[in-house]
Write a structure and sequence with these properties.
The protein is α/β, with parallel strands linked by helices. Helix content is 70%, strand content 6%. It has 22 helices and 6 strands. 28% of the residues are buried.
């Protein structure tokens, strides 16, 4: 046991290098920074939007427009017969994106039931997605004005007391059904929440598995290149002990990395969803999620953590085997390509394909990839498919044990020192 811990400490010292830790810390800080920035911008976007209204008509009808906008939650800056250039400069100074100018004759035209045009100026301050979306909200302003003015015109020109019944004779009372549970919430709201929660795990898996795999492959290749692996194999330690120590050390390091990345990704995801949550009734959303059973408990998070950790260990075991076949550090980098493909497939499938409606062949293929069970675990937990979750964890555990046995057998022979993968014919001839 003492020898095991000595080897474990040695592997930890080799893995926990400054070059290894620095990118992880930087990655976490970048995610936190970006998430914080996105969250602030989303909150700004969700706040009351500022609009400049230039009333050049000064009639009862034109005066309704700023009142309608105020009632709809907009912050209105009202001007009368002001020059456009002056207003544009004013908008730039106050950080306002939209200027609308009501022309003379607006009120008279409405009385005659003639379509009227209002000039709209959208001030673009950049070309980021959030900036363009903020600048392009003039369509919502137009819709707000049209809906309210049309109601007023209907009331003035007819005997109808409630024009909304004519304009919108049908409305939805949204009910989502999941299994035998129902909740009063729209599918769009539920999809937004589910996507924001489900995307966290896949991204973390992708980052951790690739980083951990590359670390192990390079570590084995480096030991072969520096001849330190020969020294290690000549010690009294059993080959299974060597494999286990390497796996344990790499697994521990990967777990620490996973926690760090999860912390950073949490900030990032919160930033992405901040604006959306501002526009929803939080309490109603929480109640709906509780009714549908989409509130994860401590046991659920333990299952997620177990599946994630098993995925990391499987990737490490595969990397350990692949590392044996790399003759130097440079070639070791290319050997993790199979692992990348095994991660990319379930990653894309989990985002764009519904496994419930997939063909049996596709289901078998996807479920055969051990990482798939971690990618789909959040969806399965939301749907209360605990059989799939437990079955996936058992499959991952059995596959991990098999890979450890294979790795131990490889390390039990001298082939671990000579095994190589050749990629061209010339190398094969030279070898012969």
């Amino acid at each position: 046991m003492n020898r095991f811990f000595a080897l474990f400490k040695k592997e930890m010292r080799e893995l926990l290098t400054f070059q290894m830790i620095l990118p992880v810390i930087i990655g976490m800080l970048v995610l936190m920074f970006v998430g914080n920035v996105i969250g602030k911008e989303s909150t700004k976007a969700a706040a009351a939007q500022k609009i400049i209204v230039n009333d050049m008509d000064s009639t009862e009808a034109s005066q309704m427009v700023p009142e309608i906008l105020k009632a709809s939650g907009y912050e209105v800056f009202l001007y009368n017969n002001e020059k456009t250039d002056t207003l544009i400069q004013e908008a730039k100074e106050k950080g306002i994106n939209i200027i609308i100018s009501i022309p003379a004759g607006f009120g008279e035209g409405l009385r005659e039931l003639k379509p009227q045009k209002i000039e709209n100026y959208s001030i673009i301050k950049g070309f980021s997605f959030s900036t363009l979306m903020g600048s392009g909200s003039s369509e919502r302003v137009l819709k707000t004005i049209n809906e309210n003015l049309s109601s007023i015109l209907i009331m003035k020109n007819t005997s109808i007391e409630n024009p909304e019944n004519i304009k919108y004779p049908v409305s939805f009372e949204n009910v989502v059904v999941m299994g035998n549970k129902t909740a009063n919430i729209s599918m769009e709201e539920l999809a937004g929440f589910s996507f924001s929660q489900s995307m966290l795990i896949p991204i973390v898996i992708f980052l951790i598995v690739i980083t951990a795999s590359q670390t192990v492959v390079v570590s084995i290749a480096s030991e072969k290149e520096n001849k330190t692996l020969e020294t290690l194999l000549s010690t009294p330690l059993s080959r299974m002990t060597i494999v286990t120590a390497k796996m344990t050390a790499a697994g521990f390091v990967s777990l620490v990395m996973a926690v760090i990345y999860m912390f950073g990704m949490r900030y990032y995801i919160n930033g992405l969803t901040a604006g959306a949550l501002q526009n929803q009734t939080d309490q109603r959303l929480v109640e709906a999620l509780n009714r549908l059973g989409m509130n994860l408990n401590v046991a659920d998070y333990l299952l997620i953590g177990t599946s994630l950790f098993l995925s990391i260990l499987i990737a490490l075991a595969v990397s350990l085997i692949l590392g044996v076949y790399s003759e130097d550090v440079k070639k070791a980098q290319s050997l993790i390509t199979p692992i990348i493909f095994m991660i990319m497939i379930p990653y894309l499938v989990s985002m764009f394909i519904n496994m419930d409606t997939a063909s049996p062949a596709v289901k078998v293929l996807i479920n055969a990839i051990p990482f798939s069970h971690t990618f789909f675990i959040t969806q399965n937990l939301f749907s209360n498919r605990y059989t799939n979750v437990i079955g996936g964890i058992i499959y991952q555990l059995l596959l991990l044990l098999l890979l450890i046995v294979v790795a131990a057998r490889i390390f039990a022979t001298d082939r671990v020192l000579t095994a190589q993968i050749r990629f061209n014919k010339n190398n094969k001839k030279a070898e012969g």
